[in-house]
Amino acid sequence: MRVQIASEPGRPGRANEDFAAAAPGLCLVIDGAGAPADVGTGCVHSVAWYARQLGGLLLAAAADVGLGLGEALAVGIERVNAMHAWTCDLRHPGSPSATVALARVNGERLEHLVLSDAVLVLDRVDQAPAVVTDDRLAEVITRLDEPGRLPAVGSDEHTRRLRDRVERLAAYRNQPGGFWVASTKPEAAREALVGSTPLVELNGVALLSDGASRLADRFGLLGWPELLAVLRKGGPAELIARTREAEASDPVGARWPRGKASDDASAVWWTTSD
């Protein structure tokens, strides 16, 4: 199988809180969940640090095909906990967290795992794409958000609303009836969406952070077959470049209301051809 990867921060000079990587028979995208600078986390480490550590440790755990992908994710979370339990308050509700998309070849099948709103798209032979993502976070946000459209991105009111959202989401994170992300609770891995597909039924698979899936699931400029066509022709870098063009055409979120004008974006395109 052939792998192409692209990942870039939402703004030049800003830390990229995504992490995308591949190893033999494995690929993943980790999307760190950033928070306003004045919202406490109980942790001395950055979200980018958390995403990188979890990504590397998850690749190592998932290399053991005798371990289920959910088990591997739980192991990865436990190992990151061990790295900073003595410096940080792992019980803090704002502790750094991340979404996960992971794919692994095991024999003649492709296994997948998705936790939270990362997106995995199976490019199936002679069938429509199968899109795997968890919409529980979006459902909670819909319940919590104030009525009406978000104000202009970058405005004081927009900043206030986002800060309020982050603070209120803490009560729902990794809780029954809320949403689940990778953070400090290994049991969150049991809430991941998992499955497997025979390799002969696939042309490839795309793993996307929500900053790289925007053209389809937020902006509606592409359907999933069209998004896969972009990946086939131009690869992940082309998909991100097109996303940046769309974001730049609507810098204050008038057409597409959103939390960030331009988000960190990561895409992995893994094809079955050599």
TrEMBL record:
Return the annotated region ranges for Disordered.
250-274
Superkingdom: Bacteria
* Protein name from the UniProt record: Protein phosphatase 2C domain-containing protein
Give the organism the record lists.
Actinomadura graeca
